[in-house]
Amino acid sequence: MLNRVRSAVAHLVSSGGAPPPRPKSPDLPNAPSPQTAAPPEAPRSPPATAGSGSAAPAKTVEARASFSRPTFLQLSPGGLRRAVDHAGRAVQSPPDTGRRLPWSTGYAEVINAGKSRHNEDQACCEVVYVEGRRSVSGAPREPSQGQGLCFYYWGLFDGHAGGGAAEMAARLLHRHIREQLKDLVEILQDPSPPPLCLPSTPGAPGSSDSSHLVGPQSCWSSQKEVTHESLVVGAIENAFQFMDEQMARERRGHQVEGGCCALVVVYLLGKVYVANAGDSRAIIVRNGEIIPMSREFTPETERQRLQLLGFLKPELLGGEFTHLEFPRRIQPKELGQRMLYRDQNMTGWAYKKIELEDLRFPLVCGEGKKARVMATIGVTRGLGDHNLKVCSSTLPIKPFLSCFPEVRVYDLTQYEHCPDDVLVLGTDGLWDVTSDCEVAATVDRVLSAYEPNDPSRYKALAQALVLGARGTPRDRGWRLPNNKLGSGDDISVFVIPLGGPGSYS
Amino acid sequence: MLNRVRSAVAHLVSSGGAPPPRPKSPDLPNAPSPQTAAPPEAPRSPPATAGSGSAAPAKTVEARASFSRPTFLQLSPGGLRRAVDHAGRAVQSPPDTGRRLPWSTGYAEVINAGKSRHNEDQACCEVVYVEGRRSVSGAPREPSQGQGLCFYYWGLFDGHAGGGAAEMAARLLHRHIREQLKDLVEILQDPSPPPLCLPSTPGAPGSSDSSHLVGPQSCWSSQKEVTHESLVVGAIENAFQFMDEQMARERRGHQVEGGCCALVVVYLLGKVYVANAGDSRAIIVRNGEIIPMSREFTPETERQRLQLLGFLKPELLGGEFTHLEFPRRIQPKELGQRMLYRDQNMTGWAYKKIELEDLRFPLVCGEGKKARVMATIGVTRGLGDHNLKVCSSTLPIKPFLSCFPEVRVYDLTQYEHCPDDVLVLGTDGLWDVTSDCEVAATVDRVLSAYEPNDPSRYKALAQALVLGARGTPRDRGWRLPNNKLGSGDDISVFVIPLGGPGSYS
After folding, report:
1. Best of A179, A237, A342 to disrupt the B interface by mutation (most B CBs within 10 Å)?
2. Which residues fall in a compositionally biased region of kind Low complexity (chains A, B) (predicted)?
3. What ipTM was reported for this prediction?
């Protein structure tokens, strides 16, 4: 993300300040050491275990964190050089000679125009097999039962202040999701409502009998109904948290620099789950209609959450910041005058008399792409950032950032999709210069130029979207056809066909 | 509101627990003592100062708090007896002989079927004149300048655990709004953007010159643009807070019992502001289309806000509650098993091992109309409730309740309204048994039976809505035509015509 972290005021320190890591559960996937990273390979078909989303021709941790590109790009050493050339900004897509991505997904990316040394976006596309950890009845599962689950997975990770967090998330987040789903394998395939309570020990008698679970109710007249869908949402939410905790634990050993936005799609049992933490965006274009599948989390959209936290926990402001918002910085000479402000409970503005502590820097300031938390970071959800501190201070910013995504669910079975219906995921490099409507117009223009059954049309569409956001070099910059500036940021796009040649039913 | 506060588990104590009252500003309106309350009268036309929204033929504070009905009903002693008769439940509306409510607004109400002794709903409809406190330039205003502002005001207040808070809010909230608007009289009438900073003392030189306000910006490239509209929103938000603080200060002297939901409408300078704190509801029905103008604030809709507060401030839970949500009460014998739960960051559900502190009562429990905070209250925003405690405990509930409304704005000038376009306000007694669509159908049915220029049609519509929600006595209860139970709650409805005979342009 371009300028998401103000390099002038932010710095990374390796010392503490973040909460102590909690003990690692033995069930959590390990971060593979660089030496054991899977070699580049095409995505596997089910049933297969999760492969690595991002591996690279690299021999050291640092090199891997800096240079890796998604394995499905199958970049040769020469291709990698072209991919990281800020001057040429060649658009990268998986080769036609390789195996296609699941569902004939289209993908394209381009590096930034020089704002950071490396492309800090990362991507992952996988088919993941989930083997149940144990049966609901408590009996150990027979491997031959074959009752596992498969999910399709796409992830975009937009890094900032270093590429380490994005690289790690691309490599591991889907494994955390798999881990969270392991307990649900039988439950999700059972049409009856999920049991509210499970036995602690496998083999405990009567544990699959839900009748005993409905005990005498002291306060509820009935128990709450919990859907299968909400279990998947909960699994994805917790997977984000476990991923973030793993980054906190391993930040020293594995050079997990910076943080990243995460936008992932999980397709499971007929439903598409879109989970977003950050300022990437997903939309469905269906029969020309735009269906937003995410919203952005920025200092502006999360102002009230941030202010409330600063109000309830003033120690997090370190005496350096005020939780109040002002429309501009207050000058010391204005002390005693009355200035417009917004408190955490307000959406409107009112005047207040300026007091001494109002001269502190506001927790949230600026507008649009320039909005910042603690004058430092322009995105309020994501993974990592455990070492991020306010400039010239030991004040940690992480307490204000949330690793939890918002998850939206789209039922693929409720509508008969045609080959032109797609789910488009893009990092902010795309959306900063392209509106939803412009994307929909490009979808229509590009797809209509290809036969409906031509699987390469989605890759062409992804490339067209990336090219359209990058522009062409002209007048000392990258410019769009309307002569406005193109995006100088890293740009990454997935185009997922919802009714295309993919066979997902 | 029916059963909003569980009388079995809640009680009111007069001792402290709430935050200490802050000193009263000399600018705040005083609560008139009962002796000085204005006599019943029809709403005044502008220019006029705010009249009392709710006064009554009562001689003591207690009687006033218990029996008062809106002055615009002009109830005779006999009428008042009929209005409070739980058996007959006669629908009340302003008499045809009186002066009409502004804009020919329709109003109707009915008392509950016996759930509480008195009708705990209150209503207010006023035209309020706002005289500027001082000019922006700092010069004292000449009374002859006549540059004041007028706003139209409608308010519904649904009390619980006593009628005192609703009665006080009906009498005073519009005065707090007027007070907040006093500083804005000149600013709102000046088409240029509001000044970000005002002088502290009237007459300070150069204070109306906005050019000096744009000082050197250390961090913002430009100042934030603040609209006139957002100033009105901020004024309404702060008026709710001041009203709540006044209730806290005067709760002992004035018998401000319980609390109330507040739904108010302010029409000012071409825009309709709908502010809601609680579970009343406002919708616009425009050319048959439904435009929601509020949302309800309940333990379910505000679950994550409540849980976050309990998580960040565990002392507010007093060791009696857990901030985690469970789908049903956990039995002690289930310790060690794994139960579905939701944390404050989650919208989905996941399993967790039950530990000792999970056996505490959940902060939020139940579903629908039975959802409760701390097993006590079913609404999470409103005014009052400063004395509300958890049963058999000194634990205050007020810290979890917010007095801040959500304000939605509707620009009346953006659409040419016809006489059938209305804004409908109702307490939950209406909405518990009537859907938005049913209300829209009643709007169509009733209004089409009257001439478009007949001002009595809006009163007839309000009566039809109240009757339709109350039903008729049959089979040992109040029943709707479909034989379902009607609402046994207090029901109050305003119908505000948006393009009717009212002359508000």
Report:
1. A237
2. 47-58
3. 0.83
